[in-house]
Amino acid sequence: MNILVINCGSSSLKYQLIDTNSKSVLAKGLCERIGIEGSKLTHEPVGKDELIVEKPMKDHQVAVDMVMKALLDAQYGVIKDISEISAVGHRVVHGSKYYSDPVQINEDVKKVIKDSSDFSPLHNPANLIGIEACEKAMPNIPHVAVFDTAFHQTMPEKAFIYAIPYEYYEKYNIRRYGFHGTSHSYVSKKVLELSGLDPNNSKIIVAHLGNGASITAVQNGKCVDTSMGLTPLEGLIMGTRSGDIDAGVLQYIAHKEGMDIDELLNMLNKKSGMLGLSGISSDFRDVRKAADEGNHRAEVASEAFVYRVAKYIGSYVAAMNGVDAIAFTAGVGENDGAKRAEICEYLGYLGIQLDDKQINVRGEEALISTPDSKVKVYAIPTNEELSIAQQTFALINK
Ligand code: AMP
Hints:
alpha/beta; Nucleotidyltransferase, domain 5; 2 domains; 8-stranded mixed sheet; 6-stranded mixed sheet; 14 helices; binds adenosine monophosphate
């Protein structure tokens, strides 16, 4: 069955057409600069030449129509008729407390996505625009929302509650939600598959380390804690995000620099993390290069990143009273053997031993610990699109 997976940003639209029987991608692509000068569609059909269309896309509807045209194109297309698409799976960032599973989209679901925009102002409105554009283009098939927050809905209250007056939770649903749920779910299931651990008696920590980064503790297949919070700002040091910070810092900087709360949040989301610390780049490769050349700020950024990851892993070992396996995923986790090794250096107390021959694998599923390591350590490429396609397939075939 062919499922179209859509991931909309405010000015972009990523898509993949996936055959869920063979788990293969038929075509994927990206619409960039939607609503801005210089719009471009890059369409990559598997086994055929790439198609690039540079044409104004005034809104997401135009983008979706161009994607459909490319998928159906005689030369660059991969399907002959729109009826070959059975459903659309939409990545939606925030589902608030309402959705712990994928859901077929109707007016009520759209209202929740809209109402959750307060918690995800950059993503949820764009997700909704994408949904409505796809509904117009493909009105006769199911559209399914797969939420980034869903996998984390099993967190117990002691893990998701903020220690601020309880009335804010009651009145406004202010609590920790967590993100990257599709990735954490996919990778933790892969660990179960690869390790042969009993799903009902397993303790797994997934470290999704990319430009956005988060860690999740998964006990018996269910999320029991995760590092991101109400928004994706909490937790680890990221490409441009600060992660955890004492709120007192904000008051101090606000007074000294005359910044308001929106400016402070912009600083924490876009100018902090690896970029803010190093002053060089948000890209881990650039920071590594500068650190290797002796740049002090780049060294501090790299060390602080690793240290925070190791501290979170330690806290999740405590939360689950043990750990059977740790998995690294996303851009850094999948590719950067040195970072994985630096993090694991802090974890000797767990009896972790890395396999020197495997530690530098890139972009492939691999056990990177030795056979006698007490805790198994994996590198696992995440595949959020395949996971969204599979979850969409499962829902519509229930
Ligand atoms: P993601 O957000 O998952 O796409 O991850 C993006 C981050 O992964 C960027 O900061 C890249 O620097 C980092 N990354 C990608 N490939 C590598 C690599 N080979 N070595 C180190 N970091 C990498």
